[in-house]
Amino acid sequence: MELLAGPADRSWGAFTEEHPWVLERDGIRWLPLADRLRSAARAEVPVLTKPSKVPPGARVVTVVRELGTAVLPWMVRKKRGRFATPEASRADISRRLRLAAEHLGPTYIKLGQIISSGEGLFPAELVTEFKLCRDQVPAEPFDVVRTVVESDLGGRLEDLFSSFDRTPLAAASIAQVHAATLRTGEEVVVKVQRPSVSMFVRKDLRVMAWLAPHLVGRIPIAALANPPALVELFAETIVEELDFRMEAANMIDVATMLRELGQDGYVVPRPHPTLVTRRVLVMQRVKGFNFDDVVGMQDAGIDTEEVVRTAMVALMEGAMVYGVFHGDLHGGNLFVLADGRTALLDFGIVGRLSGERRLAFLRMMLAATTNDVRGQMAAMRDLGALPPDTDLEAVIKDLRLDLPPIDPTTLTGEELVNEVQRVVKALLGYGARMPKELMLYVKNMVFLDGAMARLAPDLDLIGEIAKISMMFAERHGERLGRELGIDHTSIEMNMDGVKAGFGVDAGTDSLTYRELQARRELISKRMRDQVGR
Question: Any idea which residues carry the catalytic annotation?
Answer without folding.
Answer: 328
